[in-house]
């Protein structure tokens, strides 16, 4: 339908974003709607159901294509590999509904300025706005540009000057009302879905519709016991869904408080007034007073400064200082005005303003940037409400599996119709029997049986302190073959301990001052820098802030206070922080230093700067940050020539190194007028601060366990590259004897194009205070063993960016052996995870939530070690803050995956056993009775389905994964062979029973209770009345088929219940073993007990003991052959690998293809080489992610 598009009918929504969609315009037609209505009535509601399952069909049937401008219905299609369709109604807003502007006309000054999207959306002269609402976000029709655009945010093109001029005094009440009507309320509403809605949604699931059909059919056949059992199972399933609803309740409570905040808003004419947060609109001017203010929206700080707790967003409850957006002459968008991170000016929704500090006698003002679901918190909530679908083949294979069963049922229906029509049965009976075949071939209990396995796994994870908000992802954990780890707080301890400082003067680096010596740090500029260059605040008498800053400040033995009356500096703000030494020595006055201004730290800039002033003294600027960055801002003469080698001495030992620098400033210039670029230039290098970051005790054993299980481990960190390499070596991520190759890529400069170089890093042994030669060397020679598997690539975020831009053809080659990624920004972490996914890896990401939210969401399995609110975006959260949860999760995932396969196989066999038996009996126009069905369905299969899944995970991680697909050859072969064995056994039993000498069609029972010989019974014309059965079902074929089928269901459960290597042995599942023993005991009791009342109630006939022994022999033979096939063929991994080699099969996964190619490439990896990009650049694109991994 989408191939022939009218002009303007098709467009892209959210182009380039993660949630990009195609949008198509359609217009409803009356006669089409009427035809669909008639079709719905005549199809008895089947047509609306089909339209519910296939939204695109609903639109195509009811509407005709038209331009988006004329459309009253839009069809949306996601642009990812899933191509999910949905449709939305185009709605209208009329501005005539406004109360405060009754005289609003098309030429009113408020709406004539078409610079802003709100005014472009107003259609003139009728003053109406067209809009659609998609995933909680409003999109209005831009009449000027002819497209739907997101509303609820300030325009991106606004410059800082424009923001100050347009919104610096607030909006008028008329502007507020217009924006309120068009943008909607500033609320993040998460509805708690009513139970009746959930019930309808569950019932409308295709499988529940089938269950409904099955239940109705069974009630019509008086098979009410199992019908009631299925209803009960469905009710339990829905109850579990309601139980899972607690997540939406938790989410509701998480955002509820945000919707009911009262905040001070400045209206242009009326001045400041308290307003309910739901009424805020983009452009409103907020007045922030006092402390502990919850932000109800995203806002740009334009005056004053704030200290904010962003724990909700970052996962770290560390106070962060926000600075105002200053007016600049540039007309560039405000986000692009400086290289600094624009987020330092934004107060994010859901965060808490701990302290608001006005500039001078003014107020702290902020302009509302985004409202509702457009905010950072709204985006987080939307990512939970509308998670990215999982491209896991198990679920697609499950649908194919069910379709195969439906196909089998169709064949059975045709067979049934032929047999019963030829037998002259009434048409009502024929239809009923034919429909019965469908409910037999497709087991209605399958969803419940599959759900129990995941519920048990979730419960076991909970006991280990791992919480899951997306249970379906547990199965995906079983396929993980690459896990990315954040370093700080994940592999290493969260806190950093000061180890020492290396001061520097004009002669170079001086002797290291070790904190372990117990000696006080000498007073001087280096000590002053450490005491003042931080973002710490004093809150309720306690110093709070970044742990690193806190440790650094404590090492100086200085104290922090708030400036009092005794501390006077011109232009100093109220609540200015003052730091002073406890013992006045040397150059620092007793009054201390006032921290006048901060340029905050950001991951992108890798530095922070403060401006300080002595009471009555000079003004200084101090900078601290990544050593390479700080050195680049210093005057070259002040940076020691041995800087790189000195730095490497410590980074190669795994220390965290921070550099410090300073410069003198003019005292008469206002601090607010100082540009960051001007302050951060020509600095004087002061020295290095060395901090120790120890590995967590659990890190090394866990990484060794993962590596021995052939699961790749990758480090993604924001820390220094050399430190990352050392931590990788110490943790075992890079084992002894393996080489690290440094990949450095540089952007194009004026004279040369972008370059990439490869250098081999040599491991050296270190001594704590050795000379400057004990650092990482770059080896010149190429090692003989520098082949695939024996080397690892290490690169920085900058290099990763350059490679992605200019050397994209090399990126997959680097990723195949890329292990260490340092100085990575949060965005780069997400991109790296996505690139690994494009290579068909199943990627896990484990982080502490600080800067990993994006990567945690992007990965197939995200594991957060933080219990902050940010962790709600991650499918898994571990209560234990170390990486021990990762192998636990993989083990449980593998066990759950194998359990799913066991359950599928068992359900397939159970349905096929019943199907074969019933079709054989249909040949004699007979069937199983209701109680016979009930015994098999409820007493056997349901109990097995509930208990078979109780096996725990194997405590050992084996070096291969379970099959990721239902249609893998071993699984298919297992199902087919067992079906054939069961078919053969049933046919043999069916034919043999008819050939027995005691078999007489008019005889109802052959019991040996009267010790009559078989031949005597054959000659006797009468049978004692008490052994007769009045049932229409009772026959020798029926009795034989029922016993064979029932006991075979128990035997198959034992054969299919897999233990090692992924689950604990079957005998450890005591409940399951007990159930099997009880079921087998009851079946054997029924088989050998000569109790006429029991036989009559089950519609069975007594047979000679010898025949019962024959039945046992047939079942035992079937069990022995089935078990032998499973153990020697199906579970024989060596055999399947040999078969693969014999047929020359190779995995189609991208990473496997690259590994094979690189293994045969003698020129890879290139060492001691530098390559340059072409002018055009090399274009390479990985195929869209879809795992083709077919591993046994």
From TrEMBL:
Short name of any one Pfam family annotated for the protein: Cation_ATPase
Superkingdom of source: Eukaryota
Keyword Metal-binding listed: yes
Enzyme Commission designation: 7.2.2.-
Main localization category: membrane
Occurrences of domain Cation-transporting P-type ATPase N-terminal (ranges): 147-223
Compartments where located: Membrane
Regions that span the bilayer: 31-53, 226-245, 398-422, 434-457, 904-923, 929-950, 971-993, 1039-1057, 1069-1089, 1105-1125
Top class in the EC scheme: translocase
Membrane topology per record: Multi-pass membrane protein
Keywords from the UniProt entry: ATP-binding, Magnesium, Membrane, Metal-binding, Nucleotide-binding, Translocase, Transmembrane, Transmembrane helix
Record's keyword annotation contains ATP-binding: yes
InterPro entries associated with the record: ATPase_P-typ_cation-transptr_N (IPR004014), ATPase_P-typ_cyto_dom_N (IPR023299), ATPase_P-typ_P_site (IPR018303), ATPase_P-typ_TM_dom_sf (IPR023298), ATPase_P-typ_transduc_dom_A_sf (IPR008250), ATPase_P-type_domA (IPR059000), HAD-like_sf (IPR036412), HAD_sf (IPR023214)
Catalytic activity: ATP + H2O = ADP + phosphate + H(+)
SMART domains the UniProt entry points to: Cation_ATPase_N (SM00831)
Family: Belongs to the cation transport ATPase (P-type) (TC 3.A.3) family. Type V subfamily.
Protein's recorded name: Cation-transporting ATPase
Organism: Mesocricetus auratus
Gene giving rise to this polypeptide: Atp13a4
């Amino acid at each position: 339908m989408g191939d022939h598009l009218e002009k303007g009918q098709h467009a892209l929504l959210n182009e380039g974003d993660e949630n990009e969609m195609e949008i198509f315009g359609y217009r409803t037609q009356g006669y089409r709607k009427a035809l669909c209505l008639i079709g719905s009535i005549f199809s008895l509601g089947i047509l609306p159901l089909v339209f519910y399952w296939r939204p695109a069909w609903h639109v195509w049937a009811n509407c005709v294509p038209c331009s988006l401008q004329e459309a009253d219905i839009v069809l949306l299609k996601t642009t990812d590999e899933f191509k999910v369709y949905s449709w939305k109604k185009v709605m209208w807003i009329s501005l005539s509904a406004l109360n405060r502007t009754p005289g609003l006309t098309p030429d009113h000054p408020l709406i004539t300025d078409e610079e802003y999207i709100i005014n472009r959306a107003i259609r003139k002269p009728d003053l109406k706005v067209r809009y659609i609402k998609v995933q909680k976000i409003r999109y209005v029709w831009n009449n000027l540009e002819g497209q739907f655009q997101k509303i609820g945010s300030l325009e991106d093109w606004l410059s800082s000057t424009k923001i100050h001029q347009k919104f610096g005094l607030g909006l008028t009440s008329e502007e507020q009302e217009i924006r309120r009507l068009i943008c909607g309320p500033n609320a993040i509403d998460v509805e708690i879905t009513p139970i009746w809605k959930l019930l309808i949604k569950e019932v409308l699931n295709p499988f529940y519709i089938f269950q409904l059909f099955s239940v109705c059919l069974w009630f019509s056949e008086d098979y009410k016991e199992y019908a009631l059992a299925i209803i009960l199972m469905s009710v339990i399933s829905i109850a579990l869904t309601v139980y899972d609803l607690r997540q939406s309740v938790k989410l509701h409570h998480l955002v509820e408080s945000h919707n009911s905040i009262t905040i001070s808003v400045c209206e242009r004419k009326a001045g400041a007034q308290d307003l309910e947060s739901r009424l805020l609109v983009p452009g409103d001017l907020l007045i922030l007073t006092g402390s502990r203010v919850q932000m109800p929206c995203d806002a740009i700080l334009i005056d004053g400064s704030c200290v904010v707790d962003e724990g909700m967003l970052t996962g770290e409850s560390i106070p962060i200082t926000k600075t105002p957006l200053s007016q600049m002459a540039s007309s560039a968008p405000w986000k692009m005005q400086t290289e600094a991170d624009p987020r330092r000016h934004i107060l994010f929704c859901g965060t808490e303003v701990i302290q608001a500090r006005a500039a001078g006698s003014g107020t702290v003002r902020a302009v509302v940037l985004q409202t509702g679901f457009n905010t950072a918190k709204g985006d987080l909530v939307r990512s939970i409400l509308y998670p990215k679908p999982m491209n896991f083949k198990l679920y697609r294979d499950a649908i194919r599996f069910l379709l195969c069963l439906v196909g089998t049922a169709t064949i059975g229906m045709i067979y049934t119709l032929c047999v019963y029509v030829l037998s002259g049965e009434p048409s009502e009976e024929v239809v009923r029997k034919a429909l019965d075949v469908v409910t037999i071939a497709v087991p209605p209990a399958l969803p419940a049986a599959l759900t129990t396995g995941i519920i048990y796994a979730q419960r076991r994870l909970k006991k280990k302190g791992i919480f899951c908000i997306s249970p379906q992802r547990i199965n995906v954990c079983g396929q993980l073959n690459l896990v990315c780890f954040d370093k700080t707080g994940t592999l290493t301890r969260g806190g950093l301990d000061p180890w020492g400082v290396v001061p520097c003067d004009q002669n170079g680096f001086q002797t290291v001052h070790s904190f372990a010596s117990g000696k006080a740090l000498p007073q001087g500029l280096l000590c002053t820098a450490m005491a003042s260059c931080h973002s710490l605040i004093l809150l309720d008498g306690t110093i709070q802030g970044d742990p690193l800053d806190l440790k650094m400040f404590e090492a100086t033995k200085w104290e922090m206070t708030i400036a009092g009356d005794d501390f006077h500096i011109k232009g100093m703000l109220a609540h200015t922080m003052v730091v002073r030494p406890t013992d006045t020595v040397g150059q620092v006055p007793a009054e201390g230093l006032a921290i006048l201004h901060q340029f905050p730290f950001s991951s992108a800039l890798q530095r922070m700067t403060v401006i300080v002033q002595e009471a009555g003294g000079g003004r200084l600027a101090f900078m601290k940050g990544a050593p390479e960055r700080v050195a680049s801002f210093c005057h070259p003469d002040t940076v020691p020539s041995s800087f790189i080698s000195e730095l490497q001495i410590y980074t190669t030992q795994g220390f965290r190194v921070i550099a410090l620098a300073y410069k003198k400033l003019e005292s008469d210039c206002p601090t607010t007028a100082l540009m960051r670029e001007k302050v951060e230039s020509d600095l004087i290098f002061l020295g290095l601060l060395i901090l120790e970051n120890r590995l967590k005790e659990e890190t090394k054993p866990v990484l060794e366990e993962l590596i021995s299980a052939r699961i790749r481990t990758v480090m993604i960190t924001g820390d220094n590259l050399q430190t990352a390499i050392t931590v990788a070596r110490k943790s075992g991520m890079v084992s002894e004897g393996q080489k690290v190759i440094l990949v450095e890529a540089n952007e194009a400069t004026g004279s040369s194009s972008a370059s990439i170089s490869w250098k081999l890093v040599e491991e050296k042994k270190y001594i704590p205070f050795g000379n400057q030669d004990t650092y990482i060397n770059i080896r010149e020679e190429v090692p003989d063993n520098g082949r695939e598997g024996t080397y690892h690539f290490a690169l920085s975020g900058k290099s990763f960016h350059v490679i992605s831009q200019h050397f994209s053809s090399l990126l997959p080659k680097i990723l195949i052996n890329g292990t260490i990624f340092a100085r990575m920004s949060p965005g780069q972490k997400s991109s790296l995870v996505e690139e690994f996914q494009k290579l068909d890896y199943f990627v896990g990401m484990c982080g502490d939530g600080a800067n990993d939210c994006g990567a945690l969401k992007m990965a197939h399995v995200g594991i957060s070690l933080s219990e902050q609110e940010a962790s709600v975006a991650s499918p898994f959260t571990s209560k234990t803050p170390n990486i021990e949860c990762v192998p636990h999760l993989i083990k449980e995932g593998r066990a759950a995956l194998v359990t799913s396969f066991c359950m599928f196989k068992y359900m397939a066999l159970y349905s096929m056993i019943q199907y074969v038996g019933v079709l054989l009996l249909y040949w004699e126009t007979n069937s199983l009775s209701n109680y016979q069905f009930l015994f098999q369905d409820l007493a056997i299969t349901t109990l097995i389905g509930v208990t078979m899944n109780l096996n725990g995970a194997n405590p050992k991680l084996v070096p291969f994964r379970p099959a990721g697909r239902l249609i893998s050859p071993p699984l298919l072969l297992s199902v087919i062979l067992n079906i054939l064995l069961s078919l053969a056994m049933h046919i043999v039993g069916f034919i043999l029973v008819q050939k027995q000498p005691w078999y007489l069609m008019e005889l109802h029972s052959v019991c040996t209770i009267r010790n009559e010989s078989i031949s005597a019974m054959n000659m006797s014309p009468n049978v004692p009345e008490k052994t007769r059965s009045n049932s229409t079902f009772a026959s020798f074929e029926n009795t034989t088929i029922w016993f064979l089928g029932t006991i075979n269901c128990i035997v198959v459960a034992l054969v299919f219940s897999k233990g090692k290597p992924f689950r604990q042995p079957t005998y450890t599942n005591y409940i399951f073993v007990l159930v099997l023993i009880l079921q087998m005991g009851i079946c054997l009791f029924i088989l050998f007990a000569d109790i006429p009342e029991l036989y009559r109630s089950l519609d069975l006939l007594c047979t000679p003991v010898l025949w019962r022994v024959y039945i046992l022999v047939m079942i035992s033979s079937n069990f022995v052959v089935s078990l032998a096939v499973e153990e020697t063929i199906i579970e024989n991994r060596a055999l399947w690998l040999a078969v693969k080699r014999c047929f020359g099969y190779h995995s189609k996964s991208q990473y496997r293809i690259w590994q094979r190619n690189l293994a045969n490439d003698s020129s890879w990896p290139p060492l001691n080489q530098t390559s340059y990009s072409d002018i055009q650049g090399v274009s390479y694109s990985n195929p869209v992610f879809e795992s083709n991994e077919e591993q046994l």
